[in-house]
Amino acid sequence: MPKSSWSLLLWITVLALWVGVINGSKSKPEVGIYELKKGDVSVKLTNWGASIISLFLPDKHGKLADVVLGYDSVQEYMNDTAYFGATVGRVANRIGGAQFTLNGTRYKLVANEKNNTLHGGSRGFSDVVWEVKSHHRQAHSPRVTFTYHSFDGEEGFPGDLIVTVTYALVEKGLAVTMKARALNKATPLNLAHHTYWNLGGHDSGAILSNDVQIFGSKITPVDNDLIPTGDLASVKGTPYDFLEPATIASKIGKLPHGFDINYALDGGGKGVKEAAIVHDKKSGRVMKVMSNQVGLQFYTGNYIKDVKGKGGFVYQAHAGLCLETQGFPDSVNHPNFPSQIVNPGHEYLHKMLFHFSTKLT
Asked: Rounded to whole angstroms, how far apart are CA atoms 345 and 183?
């Protein structure tokens, strides 16, 4: 073979190896832990599922405690089935029958809860490695941004999607911003943040004594499989009425298992607004949830059982509560619900603010 041919072959080989390394690094980013600190508030996150691992807050006496349920190692998050601290999608919550029709095409999804799709399927956004786009520790607002490319057909959903989630510590709070762009096809999209909160400390036991206020006058009723019926129902005169602050314990006994329901937030999706407030009287910690979304899933950890968490503490039912701002569940199958369809050229934007404070009484 002529010398020029050998040189050409060598360059082709080097180029192929270089492209392989680059592509490999994109498809298999490393899993790590990333910390943000501002004053006496600190949060640790992992790019596995763009998840919160811990969040330390002072109580009314200044004592710090970790107020989110979770595990000691990233490996345990990889085997998690409770979605502790995770970003869930492509479509959070449930899609009935694991299917929907969009623009005349019927899409069959991966069913991972009976015949339905839950939190994006068997390998949703909570079960993938996100790339770390940026991590600023010392900025005025410490922040980390994770990004993920969801491919066309992933878990049955149409179109390529670029998603970013940014966590930022701000004055007395944690801001979470979720953005996404559909690249080539219209697709349903409903991202949610799935932290289990216990303001008394992750290892302090049940959250039933917490005072809760939810700014939603209506719920979306569900069937026995927790799939919305398509109706809207007033909370007045029902255990779901948290328009005025009330303890979870004062209402949960009127339900067979506990709370796991979507609230239609008053004011719809018109700007960032109050969604819920939680107060743990013993520690004095207060958390206010604000969002620009139309719905809020209130879940009281009903099915947690014998889960070994951080420090060896074993979590049981009602060890934490979730306040997941979101679009309405199963909206792809209910035309009367606010649409979750994102078209190419349009951006999905989900803003959340978790504001923390304390009360002495």
From this structure: 7
